[in-house]
Amino acid sequence: MAAESVLNLAGLTRRFVSGGETIRVLDGLDLEVSAGERVAIMGASGSGKSTLLHLAAGMDRPDEGRVVVVGHDMAETPEPRRTRLRAAAIGLVFQDFNLIDSLTVAENIELPMWLNRRPIDDEATHRLTRELGIDGLLERLPGELSGGEQQRVAIARALIHEPRLLLADEPTGALDQVTAAGVLDLFDQVTAGRDCALVMVTHNPDAARICDRTLWLQQGRLEAG
Amino acid sequence: MRLLIQSSRRFFYRHPGQLLLALIGIAAGVAVVTGVALMRDVLVNALDMAGEELAGRDSLRVEHPSGRIDESLLTDLATRSGAPVLVPVIAARARFDDRVLELLATDPMSLGGGEGIGLGGDQINALMRTPAGVAVNTATAQRLGLNEGDRFTVRIAGAEHEFETATILARGRALDDRLLMDIAIAQDTLRRQGQLSWIEAPAGSRHWLEAELPEGFRIETAGERRDAAARLTEGMRANLTAMSLLSLAVGLFVIYSVLSFLLVQRRRAFGMLRAVGVTRGQVTGLLAMETFILAGLGALLGLVLGTVLADQLLELVRQPISELYRLVPAAETRPSGALYLSIWTLAVVLSQASTLAVWQEARRIPPGQLVRQERESRGRSALHLAAVGLLLAGVAIIMLSAGLAGALAGLFLALMGCAVLTPSLGMLLLRLMRLPLRKTLAGRALAMLTTSRRRIAPAVAALSLALALSAGIGMMVLGFRVTVDDWVDRLLRAEAYVTVSQGVIDTALTEQIGSLEGIVALSSARQHRLPDGRVLIAYDLPADAWDGFELVDGESDSAREAFMSGEAALVTEPFARRRDKGVGDDITIDTPERRLALPIAAVYRDYGSDQGAIAVDAVHYREWFDDQVRDSLGLYFEEPGEMDRWRERLQAVDERIVLTSREQVRNQTLAVFDRTFRISWALAVLVGIIALIALVSALLALGLERRRDHATLRALGMTRRGVTGLVVSQTTGLAAASALIAVPLAIAIHTGLTLVVQPRAFGWSLPLSLPVTPLVAMGLLALATGLLAGIYPAWRIASRDPSPELRSH
User: Fold this and answer.
1) Distance from the CA of A217 to the CA of which of A89, B418, B620, B729 falls in 20 to 30 A?
2) Which residue from B372, B713, B807 is facing A50, i.e. has the nearest CB?
């Protein structure tokens, strides 16, 4: 039996106007990701990697094409439901971590549970944070942590509600080589035992080693690496 | 430095909202200070403008202690060698409906052409030829709804007179609310033939007058008249000044809030600049320059707005001033360059001082901004200690000083101390409010707020201070109103009161009324101004009426006995306090025959005049002063009857009789009270508006600063409604915390105003009551403000897709 598709991008086109000129960042892009599959997407700066992730997460709307996440066509899903779908089915990790400065580490991690109106499972939280090596930092504020520590908190936040799809936008982009390698190992570790697909946009060639597929984004389309 | 300025300029271009709020905040504070300063100036200097228009700047006034001059003196002086131009004047207070006017009668031919007030040949002719004709300026005519040739009725000294608008003067703003009349017509109309109120003489004629004037006359300079007006209105002016300075203080919180936001926004940029070699001094210099430009421009705008505001404020105080102090102030403010410069300088200097903490913070930014964020706690205990010091110093000044200035300065310091403490209290309250809401949207929203202390501290301080000020003033005014209501209730013992529309109430009329069937007793009152300005009130008091006096010092029975026997006087509480007199002290009264020394038998509560009065028995007064006139009579009925039937019966005795019921007198008194405090309400509202600007400014700053957080929350799956709820919970929570802090602060302000400021400013004591309506209204207003202040930023945040926001970061 074929694995269930958690992300299906078909004929995706996205244009931006910059300096009076229309730039076609994505141009009829197709991508299918199955449950549990890990895909690395690489490409030059400005090639549209982040745009691709934002469209996949339903945070941006394509000019053409379809985005289907766990069976829901984003174009046909009204905004509030799209947002709730993102909260329930997607985990997001950003290059700049995007932790809420005014919430503690624990509160940041609990955010998706709260947004999904799910009770907080202290045992699960403890297990995850211990796995990520941040169990001693729970009462700190993000500003008091190093870059590596912040990214671990962001990963914990992305996984705490057990999403079907994890979207990571250059998760190692702001980290040094050693810390970046550690973060990739963590991704490998924490996604391996979960039925969670991973789409990782990255510049880091090492990312390929933890992924099942590596694709290159060139001229608005994906090509196998 | 050029590049730094360039970067600063571009930054402001990108944040026009913040720039605008900073300008509005400081402009609003400066506008209130300017408005009040210009209005205060009118109450002192511009009172004399009408005199100046008649006889030139810094004119001299020849007066007699009796308040009247025989006209023969003018004829005598005018014919002597070297006589200056002398302008005879008759002045009287005239009431047109509810408005108090001043009738100024003079010889139009002696006005040197009257160009200053636009009185040309045709107008002089009209004025002199129209029977009971008066000239009014355009503004007064508009206010009273008069056209040329219109006839209207005014009441002067209890009598009604019909005047005709002979001419309307295009110029002469100094004649606002004044009726200019030919002196001969005035003497006929007012039955003051051969009498003058005073004589105006040019500024340089002092030596001549001193040599020529007979004994007993005094020459009063314009400065002395201004001083007298200043003394009379001191309490009211000091209170207004204190409130305007508090408005400025709230405005300064706005500028602090905005500048500290601008610093947070540029923290990283400053760190980078420091890394490439920009010194701490250059960073501080840049901020000082920004503050100077912002405060300077805002203050300029405030001066313009304040000049407009002054006219509105003046309109609110003109009537109370005329009712309370018998002064008819001009309706025109006189802005001066010196006043504007001093207010502008004050605003700029205070703005710089209020942002010292921001500079200090900027100096601490390390090169490269590489250190991790620290929890915001450094230096807070020192700040708290300083705040407690301010608070204690304020209380000490209030307790150790005796004057009004000490009370206001102490209150100001104590309030500033409280304002510094309020952010910490606010954070504590937000944390406490968060406890029961811990896992809810509101709880998360409050949690996010408590970690943004720097951003919201000025808003909490400004909002708490302004809410407390508004509610505290409201409590004081309402408490005072209840006290005055009780006082009037106690004072008005008679069922109805009689005055006459023309002429006077003499002994014969009094006896006629007293002999009417159904009237069991009569009281009477007669006010007499002594040459030194003290007010003597002579009372005929039947047995019941004595209870109308609420004694604050003295024993009732013995005081009554001494009062009725004419061997002692009573004095009002303001009189006793202003002149430092008490029971047993003597007061001297010069009668036409002799000098009396009467001991004070008791001090009684009175809110009728802050200058105070001496009360004596009327039987003895009539004997001492040979004055058989009564200003009003109080009627005690055997059985309360219909007022209209009594009116008919009394008018059958004398058609001039005007009957006013006890309830009507009470309502009129309370109406005067309400008019007096309209200015306080107006200033309280202005302070509230400035606080609202502070709140919106802080919330906008918070919203801008948290844009990325909100976008992240949207990215993580928070719905638009969720984000709206989050932002509105924050603004409402902030307002609720500020309102809670404002409650004890309002009670403290109310207590200070009632127990300290009122007695020192006006001489009367007030029992302390705690009306809760202003507190409830304040709470509701704060919540509504918080809600409204959150809706726009919430809508802006929620209406955008998170993607562009996340990309821009």
Assistant:
1) A89
2) B807
Residue B311 within a domain = yes
Q: Which one has a higher pLDDT value, B19 or B258?
A: B19
Q: Please report whether residue B388 resides in a domain.
A: no
What is the residue range of B779's domain?
A: 422-486+667-809
Q: Residues B186, B188, B191, CA angle at the centre, nearest 5°?
A: 100
Across the interface, do B803 and A87 touch by the CB < 8 Å criterion? no
What's the mean pLDDT when you consider all of chain A?
87
Report B:430-459 residues touching A (Cβ under 8 A): 439, 444, 447-452
Angle at B661 between CA B657 and CA B665, to 5 degrees: 100
* Last residue of one domain, picked from the residues B220, B254, B286: B220
Contacts of B447 in chain A (CB under 8 A): 102-103, 107
Query: Which comes out higher in pLDDT, residue B261 or B163?
Result: B163
User: From edge to edge, which strands make up the β-sheet containing A72-73?
Assistant: A21-34, A5-18, A64-69, A72-73
Three-state DSSP class for B530? Answer: coil
Which among B600, B624, B655 is the end of a domain?
Answer: B655
B203 with B284, same domain: the answer is no
- For residue B560, give the amino acid letter: R
Residue B678 and residue B605 share a domain: no
Which one has a higher pLDDT value, B805 or B91? Answer: B91
Closest CA to B416 of B259, B249, B241: B249
Asked if B712 and A88 come within 8 Å (Cβ–Cβ), the reply is no
For the ranges A166-170, B455-459, B665-669, the lowest mean pLDDT is seen at B455-459
A88-107 residues touching B, CB cutoff 8 A = 88, 90, 92, 94, 96, 98-103, 107
Q: Note whether B267 contacts A: Cβ–Cβ < 8 A.
A: no
Tokens of B760: 């020192």
AA identity, residue B613? A
Which residues 370-389 of B have a C-beta within 8 angstroms of A?
372-375
Q: How far apart are CA A60 and CA A223, in angstroms?
A: 23
A119 touches chain B (CB under 8 A): no
User: Is residue B288 a part of any domain in this protein?
Assistant: yes
Q: Do B141 and B40 fall within a single domain? A: no
**B363 and B265 in a common domain:** yes
Residue of chain A nearest B718, judged by CA positions:
A115
Q: Are B717 and A88 an interchain contact pair (Cβ–Cβ within 8 Å)?
A: yes
Indicate the burial class of B122 (C-beta count within 10 angstroms; 0-12, 13-18, 19 or more).
exposed
Q: Reduced to 3 states, what is the DSSP secondary structure of residue B603? A: strand
Residue B263 Cα, gap to closest chain A Cα (Å)? 17
Q: What is the pLDDT of residue B537?
A: 93
DSSP per position, B620-658 = HHHHHH----BSEEEEEESS---HHHHHHHHHHH-TTEE
Q: Do A112 and B715 touch (CB under 8 A)?
A: no
The H or E element containing residue A33 is strand A21-34
A141 contact residues in B (CB cutoff 8 A): 373, 375, 451
**What amino acid occupies position B123?**
Q
Size of interface A-B (CB pairs under 8 A): 90
Residues B637 and B708 in one domain: no
Place of tokens 């207004």: B240
Q: Taking the domain A5-224, which CATH number applies? A: 3.40.50.300
Q: Which of A98, A120, A140, A161 to mutate to test the interface with B (most CBs of B within 10 A)?
A: A98
Residues B50 and B66 in one domain: no
One domain, residues B545 and B622:
yes
The predicted-structure confidence for A109-132, as pLDDT tens digits, reads as follows: 988 898 888 888 888 888 888 888
Chain A residues lying within 8 Å of B802, measured CB to CB: 59
**Element (DSSP H or E) covering residue B196:** strand B195-196
**B215/B299 same-domain check:** no
Q: How far apart are CA B520 and CA B242, in angstroms?
A: 50
Show the tokens assigned to B695: 């709140």
